[in-house]
Each structure stands twice: as structure tokens, then as C-alpha cells.
Design brief:
Layout lengths: L1 E7 L2 E6 L10 E9 L2 H8 L13 E9 L12 E4 L9 H4 L23 E4 L4 E4 L5 H4 L2 H13 L7 E5 L3 H12 L3 E6 L2 H9 L4 E4 L3 H11 L5 E6 L4 H10 E9 L13 H7 L2 E4 L5 H12 L9 E6 L3 H9 L5 E5 L3
Parallel strand pairs: 8-9, 8-11, 9-10, 11-12, 12-13, 14-15
Antiparallel strand pairs: 1-2, 3-4, 3-6, 3-15, 4-5, 5-7
Helix pairs in contact: 1-11, 4-5, 4-10
């Protein structure tokens, strides 16, 4: 089989390897598609490092081709599946309290991290969820990023009838839009790119506002909400000024969720007295739990969230470097790798 290894920043190697053989309690999955997430982009350009060499990739879909003799679940050969590749110990306080995305042991040495830029993967039964054959495998690869957005909306306490501001109209911002609309939320999107704002409206956003002039943006949003502001705001852009602006349009008692991660360590640009007097809730969301992932799978399988319009390009495995460069270009939404030629 072929696997793509990142050996140093901006250097990918395609290596021919033996197809792994699952142990009795494992499954072998033939990978169909894998999305190129912001994490893979940051690993590729050297902004982040886990270790070298590493096989990137974690937004994967595929087909089960072998099932170990001691696998207790009902998964079978031929099933279409999506992969949930977070390492969870299921025994630390985080896992036991329903926050397995924060598992205290998920980054311990000796564990496989990522790995889906490969034609085959051995996984644990708890790392796969079966999907209906009717769901295209390229769209199924969105199960992981959508699950992160679902957790983000839950952290923001978004619910039926609420008004939510999504700051940033990239892939993850627009996935938030789709998930929020499915929950009955009124969605306002902001960005500085007109084309992305147009796309947000085409995907169902209630309003799309240009953030280039912060005062005009604040005044317009205040008008749309009859002066009250939004119930919650989700930050999907690493622009620090987005947080500062969001605080100006957050309703009293509102929730601000920092969804994005940052390359540096910016200071929260909101004074503590404003947080105190308005009882703002400031939180973050990191990854997803099994519950979030399962919700995502069901939303995709039931057609409640449709993602085909977020697939910008699909590249074959042997063009992995071109695919990552395209993802980094800022001119695409999600770029996928297709493992089989």
C-alpha cells in the first residue's frame, strides 16, 4: 500500500509499505477520502510539529475490508465507515465526565497520531462508525470537522430561536452555519471576503456582513437584533480583532466561544469589567467527543447537513503536495485526497 509521510516542513514522501494486518480486536479499513484540515496545513508549513516522519490525515472515510475475530461490534466487511481517530483512554477524569476530547492521555508517546493519508489503516472498533451506502464517501469525510462544529455550538449554548454570529466564513465557519441552521438558529456571518459572504448566503445564512469597517458592522448588527446583540458568537478566524468586535455585539449574558486556534498566544482583547457587568461567558472548544461525532454522522446520513458545496477540489494520493498547497492557497474550501486512483 501507499502512504504519504511528512518528513520535514513542506516535504512529503509517498512510500510503498506492507498492508497492515489487524489483530484480533482490530479492523482494517480501506481509506477512500481524507480531508486536508487546518492541522495538516500547519504541520506541512512547519507552524506545528508533532514528530517526523508522520502520516498526516484524520478526516477520513472508507470501507471495512477485514474484521478481527474478537471484535464485539456488529461492523462487517463491506461496511462504509467514517473514522474518529482521537486517542481516548476511557478512564481519566476527562473521559469519564463526557469530555473525552480532552483525554489526559491522548498525546502520550507511543500512540499513533493521525495516519489517514494512507490507502489502508488498522483501527479500533470504537474508532469507526458505520454510515449508510447512500451517503457518498467524499461527503462522509466531513464527519470529523462537522462534529467539531457541533461541539462548538453546544459550548456556545446555541438553541432553537437563538441568534448566533459566526466570525469567519472559511470551511469551518460555513460548517458552523450549516449545523446551526439545522438546529433552528438564526445565523449571521461576518468576513472581509465578499465571495465568501455570498457563498454563506447561498448556503442559507440569514445575514452576511462585511467586517472591513468594524463600526459599520457593529451598527448594522445592532440594527438587525433591535439593539440587543447576539446570543452567542463563535470565532472561527484567527484574527484577534474578530474577538474584540464580537464583544461589542454580544447580548448581556451571551456566550463567546473561541473555536479557532492560534499560532501565537494572543491576549483576550476584552476588559474584565465588561465581562463582569454583562455576565459574558467566555469559553473555547477543542475537537469533539464521541457524542459529537455520532451526532455529526447522523446529521450527514439523514441529510440534515449537506456538505457537497464545500468540496473545492479532489486530488489523487500521488498529488498530495499539490493538494496541501491548494488547501493553503486561501482560494478553496475543503480539499480532499482520494486514495484509490
Amino acid at each position: 500500500m501507499r502512504s504519504v509521510y511528512l518528513t520535514e516542513p513542506r516535504k512529503l514522501e509517498i512510500r510503498q509499505e506492507e498492508t497492515p494486518v489487524p489483530r484480533d480486536h482490530e479492523l482494517l479499513v480501506k481509506i477512500a477520502y481524507c480531508g486536508i484540515c487546518t492541522l495538516e496545513q500547519r504541520l506541512y508549513d512547519g507552524e506545528r510539529k508533532i514528530y517526523y516522519p508522520i502520516i498526516p490525515g484524520h478526516e477520513a472515510s472508507g470501507t471495512v475490508v477485514a474484521v478481527g475475530s474478537e471484535v464485539m461490534t456488529s461492523v462487517k466487511v463491506g461496511d462504509h465507515v467514517v473514522l474518529d481517530l482521537v486517542n481516548r483512554c476511557h478512564s481519566c477524569p476527562a473521559c469519564l465526565s463526557g469530555n473525552s476530547n480532552l483525554c489526559e492521555n491522548r498525546f502520550k508517546k507511543g500512540q499513533r497520531v493521525l495516519g489517514a493519508f494512507s490507502e489502508y489503516m488498522v483501527v479500533k472498533p470504537e474508532q469507526v462508525q458505520v454510515i449508510p451506502d447512500e451517503l457518498p464517501l467524499d461527503q462522509a469525510a466531513f464527519a470529523e470537522p462537522l462534529s467539531c462544529c457541533i461541539r462548538s455550538l453546544r459550548k456556545a449554548k446555541a438553541g432553537l430561536g437563538d441568534t448566533v454570529l459566526v466570525s469567519g466564513a472559511g470551511t469551518m465557519g460555513l460548517l458552523h452555519v450549516k449545523a446551526a441552521l439545522a438546529m433552528g438558529v438564526r445565523v449571521i456571518v461576518t468576513d472581509i471576503a465578499k465571495s465568501r459572504l455570498d457563498d454563506a448566503l447561498a448556503m442559507g445564512a440569514d445575514f452576511a456582513l462585511d467586517a472591513s469597517d468594524s463600526q459599520v458592522f457593529v451598527d448594522t448588527l445592532r440594527s438587525l437584533t433591535h439593539g440587543r446583540g447576539v446570543d452567542s458568537c463563535i470565532i472561527t478566524t484567527p484574527s484577534v480583532c474578530a474577538v474584540e468586535t464580537a464583544a461589542k455585539v454580544l447580548a448581556p449574558g451571551g456566550t463567546l466561544n473561541i473555536y479557532t486556534s492560534y499560532g501565537d498566544k494572543p491576549v483576550l482583547p476584552i476588559d474584565m469589567n465588561t465581562i463582569h457587568r454583562n455576565e459574558f461567558v467566555i469559553t473555547g472548544s477543542e475537537g469533539r467527543s464521541e457524542y459529537d461525532f455520532n451526532t455529526s454522522v447522523r446529521a450527514l446520513a439523514n441529510g440534515k447537513v449537506v456538505v457537497d458545496d464545500l468540496i473545492s477540489r479532489i486530488y489523487p494520493l500521488d498529488q498530495a503536495a499539490q493538494a496541501v498547497e491548494a488547501a493553503l492557497s486561501g482560494k478553496t474550501y475543503r480539499v480532499l485526497l482520494k486514495m484509490e486512483e
